[in-house]
Amino acid sequence: MADTNILYDEQGHPRHFNIVEDADTAPTAARASSARPASAQEAAKQFLASHADLLQLKRNVMQSMDVRASLAPVAEDEALRFESEKHTMDSTVVSYNQTMFGLPIYQAGVSVVMHGPQNQVKAATSTLHYDVAAQPPGHSMANLGALDTAASGAHDNVVRRAIPAAQGMRINRTRLMVYKYDPADRVHHEHGDPGFGAQPHSLSL
Predict the structure, then answer these.
(1) pTM for the whole thing?
(2) Of 9, 43, 98, 164, which has fewest CB within 10 angstroms of its CB?
(3) Is the model more confident about 144 or about 138?
(4) CA-CA distance, 38 to 158, in Å (whole number)?
(5) What are the pLDDT digits (tens) for 60-74?
(6) Cα–Cα distances in Å, from 177 out to 8, 89, 142?
């Protein structure tokens, strides 16, 4: 038997799960799990599916979990897409981006932590955004050729104006994402002030 401790934010959304195995039943649970070993990604998906109601994840949101976020907008509403699988000693962390139109929502997603060769889930963290609403991007933002301008050096002046001492720095890659703009969180100079280039494209939430 496992106890799940859940931390909620001020809006009542679950943000952290901590799964603690009962010491008396842990060996039994380990034997049961050894009968049907799952990959780390399978274990993560099983955990998220079993907690979908708590996380307010609709079934269609979990249909793209085996593919990565798109480089250009696609005809897809809110979803979870695979981001990474990382291994540290006896732990594995599987992370998923929350996406809209196939594009990653900035700093939004879920991560599931597993221990041991049986990928036993021990913890999970959610930075999901709720009530996501965004307008589909225009045709110009869906054109991959128009987006692939980093290699040409088209954005290099953004770095050089912001960091005058870094004249040799280059922007190697750009990508589209969905970003929730909050003026209260802005920490650098306002757009148009000396030292900053053109405002990047974004899709408002």
Answers:
(1) 0.77
(2) 164
(3) 138
(4) 46
(5) 999 999 999 998 888
(6) 26, 32, 12
